[in-house]
Amino acid sequence: MTALSDDSGFDGLDPRVAHAQRAYNRATLAIYDRLVLGLGCSLFWRCPAGEMLRLYDRSAGRRHLDIGPGTGYFVDRCRFPTATPKITLLDLSQPCLDKSAKRLVRYRPDTCSTSLTPCGPVACCSAPRCSPKGCR
Ligand SMILES: C[S@@+](CC[C@H](N)C(=O)[O-])C[C@H]1O[C@@H](n2cnc3c(N)ncnc32)[C@H](O)[C@@H]1O
């Protein structure tokens, strides 16, 4: 992994991580559901949000780790096999974690602020069995 040093405010982050950090902020998240899920899913990915939701319905379990929840749209709408799923949200973007955790507050989700790439340290995690070396 390559570390970058520039004036972007993302010094030392892997370029891919820095890109994701920039892309998912409060402004973009405010229009994400309507623009990306409403339009982009069908137009660019050829997979309408309804189809993605069906895939979520099939995969959602009693203990659910959602990696990169974005706005939490799908986790909010999918059907869990229990009324009280144990949900952990993992994302490198704090705005994404804030937005999705707020949306899913009824499930009282744990949040894990980290990047799945090897360069990212675990900065903060509310999951019960999380250590500085990562979530277990
Ligand atoms: C395209 S959005 C998908 C959001 C949501 N799953 C959906 O389908 O609407 C990608 C999400 O993954 C997160 N993400 C991207 N790279 C990541 C990484 N290396 N580690 C953790 N989260 C990452 C972003 O912050 C964002 O929340």
Task: Please summarize what this structure is.
The chain is an alpha/beta fold and 136 residues long.
Structural class of the secondary elements?
alpha/beta
Compounds present? S-adenosylmethionine
Q: What string gives the helices and strands in order?
A: HHHEHEHEEEE
Q: Would you tell me the overall average pLDDT?
A: 83
Query: Helix amount, in percent?
Result: 25-40%
Gap between N and C termini: 24 Å
| Number of alpha- plus pi-helical segments | 5
Poorly predicted ranges: 1-8, 120-124
C-alpha-based Rg, rounded: 16 Å
**Percentage of residues in strands:** 15-25%
Largest sheet: 4 strands, mixed
Q: Strand tally, please? A: 6
Global morphology:
globular
Domains counted in the coordinates: how many? Answer: 1
